[in-house]
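User: Run a structure prediction on this.
Assistant: Running it now.
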Amino acid sequence: MLKEFKEFITGGNVIEFAVAVIMAGAIGTVVKGFVSNIVMPVVGMFTGGVSFADKKIILSEAIVDAAGKVSQPENAIMYGAWIDSIINLIIVGFVMFMMIKSYNKMKKKEEEAPAEPAGPSQEDLLAEIRDLLKKD
């Protein structure tokens, strides 16, 4: 059982999957930074200087004691962060679409390469056998 597990872990598919997961996490971080730091400020500029990251609906205010320490944080729906996430999803989806599209284009070019001449068809072989049997 240990040998089978070792073969499974060192197999190409598991390693490729692990690399894909790590790369997806890194790409996700880069895209999130792109959306939050580049796209959303531009969107905010077109919406009159509104920063979506700070947009929220406060359900209950924070409770602050006499010393100025927050004893209970505010409860809020952070819809601005949700808008960031939606834009993030759209950008990731578009990038994945472009990657798959280019991959399919490369794959199609490989398929269009001239194939080796095929041998005789099944019908040709059967006709040849028939002709040989007629001769005898």
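The CA atoms of residues 52 and 80 lie 4 Å apart.
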